[in-house]
Amino acid sequence: MTAPLLYALAGAILCGIGLFGLLWLSHLLRKLVAFNIMGSGVFLVLVGLPQHQGGQDPIPQALVLTGIVVAIAATALAVVLIRRYYHLSGLTSLTGEPASREGGPE
Amino acid sequence: MIRALKTLAVVAACVSFSGLLAISIWTIAGQPAPVNLPQLLSDNMERSGVEHPVTAVLLNFRSYDTLLEIGVLVIAGIAGISMAKTASLEDPELRTSDSLLYGLQRWFVPLMLMLAGYLLWAGAHRPGGAFQAGAVLAATGVLMRLGGIPMDFLRPGLLLRLGLVLGFTVFLLVAVASVIGGDAFLAYPPELTKPLILIIESVLTLSIAMVLLALFVSAPVNDAEDREEGSSS
Fold first, then answer.
1. pLDDT attached to residue A97
2. DSSP-derived secondary structure letter, B57
């Protein structure tokens, strides 16, 4: 049991927490945050596991760096989409009450 | 009752997901790695044109990933802009009128621009590089935007499109040029490696900053339904 392995296992736990948020919370922004937590867990696993085996490994680190940038862009795009959805439908969740404003989800 | 059962089911699913993941991590951690990648990397470092291993991986050995990544960023940026229905950039409602922000801005904007340039240059031999520099540049843009400094290039138009696709285009051109020259896709000519990486990193920084900033600018939606970006307000 080394410190990097602990990071990887913590990443697994973060994945579980993120999955719970994704399944259980209904507000779209909360879902987005939960999804980001899940992504952070994946990054932790990806960085921690190779470090446990053979010291610092720049290759997964570079891949995680790429992943972080993509995650930021995807999160920003999701926020734009959520705001647009809210603007059109007045709802903050996908399972809103059916008797909402017309327009609704596209 | 049903709600409690549902909660229980979801919790059980998540715990078992975490548990499975942890077990597989534990199993993988017990086995020796089949390929010694760090060793392989350090053996080939002198061919990469830069001294920092992460930058070498990002822009030379696995530059295909980086190319696809900037492609994803451009698509996200374009999708974000096309979704947006923002008020015009000079809308006073979107400004933060805070005298502290104005005061800080005078000091921070030049400093942050300099920091972005330094990070870009430092990527060759220490942690840094296009992504970090792009993030700092985008943050500078956000700060300027909040302070109400006019940034006309963010209007949908030629400059915005150019800025968004510049990094991807230059990267793709370099990649295709090496194919036309008879080499593999994305194989840099050995004597040009360092300048090519520097050029690609610079345009990547610009494009990443542009995409993030464009996404930030297109995020707010005003209550007014009929005001489009760029219309006369």
1. 54
2. I
3-state SS class at A93 = strand
Helix, strand, coil percent content, chain A, rounded in steps of 5 = 75, 0, 20
In terms of CA atoms, which chain B residue is nearest residue A10? Answer: B22
Residue A1 token pair? 């049991």
Q: What is the pTM of this model?
A: 0.80
- For residues B72 and B208, the answer to whether their CB atoms sit within 8 Å is no
Alpha carbon of B169: minimum distance to chain A alpha carbons (Å): 18
Coil, strand, or helix at residue A96? coil
**Burial category of A23 from C-beta neighbours within 10 Å (exposed 0-12, middle 13-18, buried 19 and up):** middle
- Of B150 and B205, the structure prediction assigns the larger pLDDT to B205
- Residue A80 — left, alpha, or beta (φ > 0 → left; ψ -120 to 50 → alpha)? alpha
Q: Which of A23, A77, A84 to mutate to test the interface with B (most CBs of B within 10 A)?
A: A77
DSSP state of B127: S
Q: What is the mean pLDDT of residues B152-180?
A: 84
DSSP state of A27: B
Burial of B140 (0-12, 13-18, 19+ CB in 10 A): buried
Distances (CA, A) of A80 to A36, B82, B117: 16, 10, 29
At residue B85, the pLDDT reads 61
* A38-94: pLDDT as tens digits: 999 999 999 988 888 777 788 888 889 889 989 988 998 898 888 888 888 888 888
Task: Enter the ipTM.
Answer: 0.78
- Are B124 and B51 a contacting pair, CB within 8 Å? yes
Taking residues B139-144, what's their average pLDDT?
88
Contact A23 B14 (CB under 8 A): yes
Is pLDDT above 70 for A20? Answer: yes
Query: Which of B17, B25, B211 minimises the CB distance to A19?
Result: B17
Number of H helices, E strands in chain B: 8, 0
